[in-house]
Every structure is written in C-alpha cells, then in structure tokens.
Design goal:
This protein has about 170 residues and is α+β, with helices and mostly antiparallel strands. It has helices at about 1-20, 40-45, 50-55, 55-60, 145-150, 155-174, and strands at about 25-35, 65-70, 80, 90-100, 100-110, 115-125, 130-140. It has a single domain (about 1-174), classed as Alpha-D-Glucose-1,6-Bisphosphate, Chain A, domain 4, CATH 3.30.530.
Length: about 170
C-alpha cells in the first residue's frame, strides 16, 4: 500500500510539474500576398461558404457534412461540420468584423476532444495587392497543458495553414 501511495504521489508531482512548465497560450499564423484588391479579398474571407472551397481540411474528408447557419459573412453566422478522424466535429462562428482589415472567429472543437480557440484573418494593402495573415490562437488549460509539453502547435497546424493560403491564392486570383 505504501508503494502504491508513493507511485501515485510521484505521478501527481510529475503531472504538476508538466502542467506548470507547459506553455499557457499558443498562436500559429501564416502570411501570403495575393494580387487582388483588399475589398475583394475581405469579402471572400468573410464568407464561411467560400472558406470551404480552399480549406485544407476539406481535402482530408471529402465526405464531411457541413451546415451553415445565419447570414453568411456576418457576425453570428456559423458553420457546423462532422467528419472523419482527421477533421472531427466542430463549429466556427464569426465573432468580429473590422471592414477590410480583420475577421475573428470562434472555433469550437467538439470531437475528438472539446476545446475552444480563436481563428483570425488580418489583411492589409501592400504594393503587390493584399497581404493575408491567417491565424489560430488560444489558451491551454489542464489537461491539454500536459499534451502541449510534447506537441508543437506550429509544426502540427502550420503546414495546413500554408496549404490553405496557397489554395486561397489560386482561388482568389483566378
């Protein structure tokens, strides 16, 4: 019995150390420049329906079920998806719109695990057209903090953002 209590105590100590040393926040973002005017880019990025056209996750599950609610491109509109193990289940709701500069969404992941994050697009005019920054940020809470000690969000999500932005560039410049 003493040995069992000792083992439990050591495990609790390890979990506590991992939790308190893990990063408490995360942010992943990528940028691209597209050769279209800012108003065209902004209008397209506001549309949850248009986002599905170039989304890297749509390729991961072509059979994914998607429903749209509200007026597309406006605050409060949201999409719900249910897919395979690569895309899971969740919702994305438009929470904030600053015309021709910023769009913020709330991402609610329901499966395979529950979590809430913030997605965003920042756009600005540049000489070549419009610079688009696509990002994802949030807070790590227990028990996800322990997982973050062993996982690099930038390496896990960054390549998907790069692929999506490349597809967006092709889509918007056609």
């Amino acid at each position: 019995m003493k040995i069992l209590l000792y083992i439990i105590g050591v495990l609790a100590l390890i979990i506590g150390i991992l939790h308190f040393t893990a990063p408490k926040t995360y942010q992943v973002d990528r940028k691209i420049v597209v050769s279209k005017k800012i108003d065209t880019v902004f209008k397209s990025l506001c549309s949850l329906k248009e986002q599905q056209i170039w989304s890297p996750w749509s390729e991961k599950d072509p059979e994914m079920k998607i429903t749209y609610n509200g007026t597309d491109g406006s605050i409060g509109s949201y999409t719900h998806w249910t897919g395979n193990k690569d895309v899971g289940e969740g919702e994305q709701e438009i929470k904030k719109i600053e015309p021709n500069s910023y769009i913020e969404t709330e991402l609610r992941f329901l499966k395979p695990w529950k979590s809430t994050s913030t997605g965003f697009f920042e756009i600005k005019p540049v000489a070549e057209g419009t610079e688009v920054t696509w990002g994802f940020k949030g807070e790590n809470t227990f028990p996800s903090t322990i997982m973050m000690v062993f996982m690099d969000m930038d390496k896990a999500i960054g390549p998907d953002f790069e692929k999506g932005l490349s597809k967006f560039k092709t889509y918007i410049e056609k």
